[in-house]
Design brief:
The protein is an alpha+beta fold. The chain has 2 domains: about 5-205, Fructose-1,6-Bisphosphatase, Chain A, domain 1 (2-Layer Sandwich); about 215-345, D-Maltodextrin-Binding Protein, domain 2 (3-Layer(aba) Sandwich). It is built from 9 helices and 15 strands. Bound molecules: 2,5-anhydro-1,6-di-O-phosphono-D-glucitol and manganese (II) ion (MN) (2 copies).
Length: about 350
């Protein structure tokens, strides 16, 4: 009998139950967070279901022909996933506003606003270039408390640093679908059991190694980077114990590094010093998560969680992963900037 009870406990920590366990409370705030996580999980399940059959469906893959606010070609799956998150939160009473990579301005759900003072920030499909070739993609999310009056649609309250995120995480659509999240009490991974249709706790309290062998960066941009980043890459080329891994989807690359250590970089280029990745729904949620696992995330000169965006779709360079590896990259940046200062003062 005892054995059977144990089996049930081990196998059935669902996401919503885990949120309550973490917060050690059934307070209204805990109820809200648990319900919000449940809705995010629902969106993840719907997206995973469509991805798993996309090659067999009419109109699931390929481009729409539109260009989004980022200046990037939109895929049909980007549009689908963006709408899934919106419908998961309609009539939920939970989230008043959603802001996404795919929408120029935040989307308001006025009927929720009197009760749900939260904003969901998300990248509905991260790594869209992988969609048509059946390789891993992800979704990234963060929850923030909503401030101010919602008759004011400027959303300037979002232009704050990432330390006040209430929750953040990602869903990875790989061989299995996983949801990894933090509400500021460590990082926990759930695996979707398709036979139950539930995310079940698979790894609790993930700690990222202080150092790892992987460096993950698009080296095709080598000649467009600042010299300091080239210095770092030359360093790993000349030292034993490094290996390159780059999938084209940030979520998958970070997932590997979270479990096995190493560093992911998306530096700025000389033409675009702020790089490619967006702060509010890409780099800041992942920085929150990696810091919670004992790692670091830096823009090169500042912790990502301290960066204050000047607009909704602001971009930032990203160096993220194991503490020692992030510090090593930063040391090359500091060295070049010291040399520049010295050259100026002479
Ligand atoms: P998205 O598909 O949301 O636009 O994000 C793609 C991002 C990120 O997932 C990935 O690491 C990076 O862009 C890949 O960019 P490159 O093709 O420039 O390497
Ligand atoms: Mn992305
Ligand atoms: Mn995207």
């Amino acid at each position: 009998m005892l054995d059977r009870e144990y089996a049930l406990d081990r196998d059935c920590t669902t996401l919503s139950r885990h949120v309550f366990q973490q917060l050690q409370s059934f307070s209204p705030d805990a109820q809200d967070l648990s319900a919000i996580m449940n809705r995010i999980a629902l969106a993840g399940k719907l997206i995973a279901r469509r991805l798993s059959r996309a090659g067999l469906m009419e109109g699931a893959l390929g481009f729409t022909g539109e260009i989004n606010v980022q200046g990037e070609s939109v895929k049909k799956m980007d549009v689908y996933a963006n709408e899934v998150f919106i419908s998961a939160f309609k009539q939920s009473g939970l989230v008043c506003r959603l802001a996404s990579e795919e929408m120029e301005n935040p989307y308001y759900i006025p009927e929720n606003c009197s009760i749900g003072r939260y904003t969901l920030l998300y990248d509905p499909i991260d790594g869209s270039s992988n969609v048509d070739i059946n390789i891993n993609v992800g979704s990234i999310f963060a929850i923030r408390q909503q401030e101010g009056d919602d008759s004011d649609r400027s959303a300037t309250d979002l232009l704050q640093n990432g330390r006040n995120q209430l929750a953040a995480g990602y869903i990875l659509y790989g061989p299995s679908t996983m949801l990894v999240y933090s509400i500021g009490r460590g990082v926990h991974a759930f695996t979707l059991d398709p036979s139950l249709g539930e995310f079940i706790l698979s790894t609790e309290d993930i700690r990222i190694p202080d150092h790892g062998p992987v460096y993950s960066v698009n080296e095709g941009n080598f000649w467009q980077w600042d010299e300091s980043i080239r210095d770092y890459i030359r360093y790993v080329h000349r030292h034993e114990g490094y290996t390159a891994r780059y999938s084209g989807a940030l979520v998958g690359d970070i997932h590997r590094i979270l479990f096995q250590g190493g560093v992911f970089l998306y530096p700025g280029t000389v033409k675009k010093p702020e790089g490619k990745l967006r702060l509010l729904y890409e780099t800041s949620p992942l920085a929150f998560l990696i810091e919670q696992a004992g790692g670091r995330a830096s823009s090169g000169t500042q912790d990502i969680l301290d960066v204050v965006p000047e607009k909704l779709h602001a971009r930032t360079p990203l160096i993220i992963g194991s503490r020692e590896d992030v510090s090593l990259v930063e040391s090359f940046i500091q060295e070049r900037s010291r040399q520049k200062e010295e050259a100026v003062s002479h």
